[in-house]
Amino acid sequence: MRLGGQSQAERARDLASASRVDVVIMLIGHNDINLNFTLMSRIAAGSMSSSNHQPIDAISSNVAAAWQTIKAGNTSSVSRLMVVEMADLMQTPDFIRNFGTPTGSATSPAARVRKEVDRVNQSLRNPGMREHATFVDFPRFQDHPNGLPTLQIGGVILTRLQQSHSNPTYVFLDGIHPRAVGNLLIANMILQGLNSRLNKNVAMVTDRKILLSAGIGDQFQNVTLVGRFNFRRYVTQY
Amino acid sequence: MTDFYQRRRIILLLLTMSYTIFTGTGQCQLITPADTKGVVIIGDSLSDANSFREPCTFNAPTATPVADRNRNDYTWVDVLAARREMPIGNLVAVNGRSYQRREFNLVRNCATPAKSIRRT
Question: Looking at chain B, which residue has its C-alpha nearest residue A182?
Answer without folding.
Answer: B30
